Each structure stands twice: as structure tokens, then as C-alpha cells.
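hey so u asked for the seq, here:
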Amino acid sequence: MQKKTKKKTTPKGKGEPTDKLVGFGTNVLTQINKMENPDIKLPIRALSNIYFDEKHKLIRLGDKISHRTYLNVAHTRKFMQTLLVASECKKIINQNVTTSIRDLYYALKHTIPGTNENTFEDQSESDPILEDLEAALNTLREALHLQADRKGYVAGPIMINDSGDRIDCSKMGSSGWAIPSNVEPEIIKFEKCTADFVLVVEKDAVWQRLNEDKFWRKQNCLILTGKGQPARGTRRLINRFHKELKLPVYVLTDADPWGYYIYSVIKQGSINLSFLSDRLGTPSAKFIGLTAQDVEKYGITKNVTIKLNQGDIKRTNEMLKYVWFKPKEWQKELRHMLEKGYKLELEALSSKGIKFISEKYLPEKISKKEFLP
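ran it, C-alpha cells below
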């Protein structure tokens, strides 16, 4: 008879993130014991080390490395801060608790004994250090038991298991299911989903309209809002919906450079978080609207359009040069916007009727597959 093997369990506070942190600290300690100048190697998270992966359609981080050394006066403060953040992350994991990046900042801020120097003056110092650590360890902050602000909601035909609690997103009333910071498979599991696609909506007010009109039921879809530029958790959830559930992703934003940029971040990731593009970007996402060309197509009155300001014009001209906006459809849309000199918000569709967006505009675009790539 074959012997039953005892299933191995990972001790609390152990596992890959802890191992990476221990290795990170051990490397520094080894250099000190050898009387060497401690040197932390970090990927360069700057535009000079960013490239667009044409094959996978994602913004990626290159292989250039920077050195943060203790005995370099220009580096000493950040060197100390990097080790403080790494040490605190290990402590949090060992305690098996989760905390916010704001709490992390306060936990680490103190005056160095014998000096008037603070370890951190502001959270704007600790946040980039955390991102450096994520990039160096090739891990997510959520794996380090850290969470950012929650931002975004979902409604539609999906059953989600959230840390053991079963949530039916078709029975969440007017509020929807609030997307947590950590949506990794260990925390958020998809139990059942019958949706045909995901509609990502920039504006919370427009999402509320679609939810009230039960758009998700009529179109058999999931409706999701990131309430403006979506947080990491929201973008990761969109990524998982597509990869794991094989759902097409359609994005609905304002017809302006900032709405188009939100779409581009959802689609191929962002420059700032290029080291996470595989997990945050959804290259097959398509843009469903709003476009400046819809003004003529749907007979939207000009009095609800907004004149482009100098910032809009500058941003649009910059976007015309981006690789990911090179498809002819996007070139046509951006040039059309500049030519007409106006932009418009999603709410402008209400000038055609409060339910115009849910009863005509979106159903027509979806049925005709009128998307921008």
C-alpha cells in the first residue's frame, strides 16, 4: 500500500516574499562583513529605461540598473530608507497582519537619535522607496502585506469569494461590490461568472446610471468603475477578469486627452509601474467611447462640448507621438479633436436623454463592435 505523504504547510510569515526580503538583507550584511561599501542594486524606473514591447503590447521596464551605496553621501539617506522599508515589511509579514502604505510611513518616521534628522519627512519619500523595493524584488506590495486606498466598484453576474465570504455582485443594490486593494488569487477567487464582457467606466456617476438601469443585466456583462484613474487593485482585477475568465474588456471614458490616457494605462500599463505591466495591463482592451467624432455621429449639441485649453492641446500633441496611439484610428480621433477644438464629458450624452447612454449609445456600439484599438 502506498504511503500517504503529509501535506507540507508554509509556516506563518514564511514563503517567497519573506525569502526575497531575507536575501535582500543578507546581501547587504555580507558586504558589510567583508568591509565593503554596501551596495543595493535597483532597476532604473525612469523614462530612459522604459520601452514599448511591440509583441505583447505592454510598457516594460528595461534592464538598466542603478546603484544605491551607503558611503555615497548623495545616496546615504535613501539607502537607509530602503533598508527601513524592507525591514518593516518583513516585520509585518511575520506578524501576519496587513497595513496601509500610510501606516507604513508613520511606523517608520522617527528622529534619528543624537540628531535632528528624521528618517522620513513626508509620505512622498516612502512611497517611491516601496516601489523601488517592489521592482528590485519583482513582487507586489500586496505580497508584502501592504495595501493602498480602495477605489472602485463592480456589479454584474459574478460570484466572488472574498477571504472566505461569498459575494454575489448581481445582488449588491445601488452600491456594487467595493474593489479591495489586494485582489490576488489567494484573497479574491472567482467562483461563478456568466458575463459576456467587462465594461470599465471612468466616471462613478455614469457607472451609477448604468447600474440603476441594470445595464449589466440587459447586456449580460460586468460593469466596473475605477472612479477616474483606476487604482492598482482595480487594474489588476480587470487583468484577471480577462486572463482567467477570458472576458473581453471595453473601456468607456470622457472624450478628452485625460480619458484617453486612462484607457491607455488600463491597456498597456503605465510608465511609473512598468515593472508590473504583466499584471496590471490588459493589451486586448478596446475603447468603446466617448469620442469627439461622436458629436456629429449622434447629433450631440455643440453647447455641451468644452473648448480645449492649452494643456489639452499640448497633451494631445504628445499623445500623437506615443507608439500605443499610432494606430490610424487613434491618429484620426486625436487629430479630429484638435481640428474641432473641443472635448466632452460622458455626462454630455444626457443631453440626448438620461437613459440615452444605456439604451442606445452603448448597445449600438457593442452590437456594431465600433471600438478603437
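The chain has a mean pLDDT of 91. DSSP finds 13 helices and 17 strands in the chain.
lmk if thats what u needed
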